[in-house]
Design brief:
Length: 369
């Protein structure tokens, strides 16, 4: 989020305008303290807010910044407002901690000012808001202000890449047992395992690119022009990473899991199965988008084997991807094959057999892994 704050003027004018309007509307003139969450983005957001309002104060009355872990520096005899600043929150645990810790400062009104909320669903967001705004006068004693919000998956431990690493280790062991440890394909597998391992280090803290398997020409999957979700950004193709695309698609799919709409939902029940329409892989035919859908979807959402028509539709799409594997239309082939191999994407057995036959005809070292 700190990157957004740093580039408000140059790249994120729409967000900047909304942010500044919210500051004008919700930050009162009697602010005594800012408490920023302990991250760079929150500190920058706090500094931006102060810069916007400082002309309303004389130099000796400017609001002071209080460190997250030094609340004892608050003057208990004073009164006014305390603005708690968070650039981005997911579970809000730091805000809940502050809510409890600040109860003894009952002469202050609390304003939780958040640049972006990314809770898993609307219910948790409402739970968080209800807890933070409850105070001495009951409901809405405090203010909860969010500039933007959307819902996204919070599974940061059991990610698709953790699973992939374990899967590849098993494949590597199988190769070694067969005495094939020096093969070209084994090197590719080891390189991929190493990449995932390095991405989990405290230094790397994840990947921005190389999230997915490359094309059969060994090129990284890239976003082409025309992506509906990024049309408001200028030259987004030059700036966007695979992680940006994955995060966007993951957020959309996650919102469908909690959707209350009967027509557009991925909620599952004992009697109802909702799947991702195979047509989405035609509609969004950039390999990086297809890979993002495959990676963030649950197996239950790609279980096309339960219906003959769905399996046939998905098979037809895959046959096109296979036949065009060395062109843009087929750039996501390796991700499709990986999803099928780990049985995340499932089809009727006869369709799997036909796909295997088509794959066997491709003369490509990467595909033959």
């Amino acid at each position: 989020m700190f990157r957004v704050i740093d580039n408000l003027e140059s790249k994120y004018s729409k967000y900047r305008n909304k942010l500044n309007n919210y500051i004008n509307q919700y930050i009162p003139s009697n602010v005594k303290y800012f408490i920023c969450l302990p991250d760079e983005g929150s500190k920058k957001l706090g500094e931006h807010i102060l810069e916007k309002i400082k002309d309303n104060y004389t130099a000796d009355k400017l609001p002071k910044f209080i460190d997250f872990d030094k609340l004892e520096n608050i003057d208990k005899s004073a009164e006014g407002a305390i603005v708690i600043v968070a650039s981005c929150i997911a579970n809000g645990k730091n805000l809940l901690f502050l809510s409890r810790a600040l109860r003894i400062y009952d002469t202050f009104r609390l304003i939780y000012f958040i640049g972006l909320t990314t809770t898993s669903d609307e219910d948790y967001r409402n739970f968080l808001k209800s807890n933070l705004t409850h105070g001495a006068y009951g409901k809405d004693s405090n203010s909860f202000i969010e500039v933007e919000n959307f819902y996204c998956n919070k599974d940061s431990k059991n990610t698709t890449w953790v699973f992939e690493k374990e899967f590849l280790k098993q494949v590597e062991e199988n190769f070694e047992e067969k005495g094939l440890s020096d093969e070209f394909n084994v090197k590719l597998i080891r390189d991929r395992i190493k990449l995932i391992d390095e991405s989990m280090s405290s230094e790397a803290k994840g990947l921005s690119n190389n999230l997915f398997y490359p094309t059969t020409n060994d090129n990284q999957l890239e976003l082409r022009k025309g992506f509906a979700f990024f049309t408001t950004f200028n030259d987004y193709v030059k700036d966007v990473s695979q992680a940006d695309v994955y995060f966007t698609i993951s957020s959309v799919i996650n919102s469908l899991r909690y959707s209350k709409s009967q027509q557009q939902t991925l909620q599952q029940s004992e009697f109802v199965r909702n799947l991702i329409d195979p047509g989405n892989f035609n509609r969004y035919n950039d390999g990086v988008i297809q890979a993002s859908i495959l990676r963030c979807a649950y197996p239950s959402e790609l279980s096309y084997h339960i219906d003959e028509t769905l399996s046939e539709n998905m098979y037809s799409i895959l046959e096109k991807v296979i036949s065009e594997h060395d062109k843009d239309q087929g750039e996501g082939l390796l991700e499709f094959l990986y999803a099928i191999t780990i049985q995340k994407l499932t089809l009727k057995k006869d369709h799997i057999f036909k796909i295997s036959e088509s794959i066997s005809k491709i003369e490509n070292d990467i595909v033959k892994i």
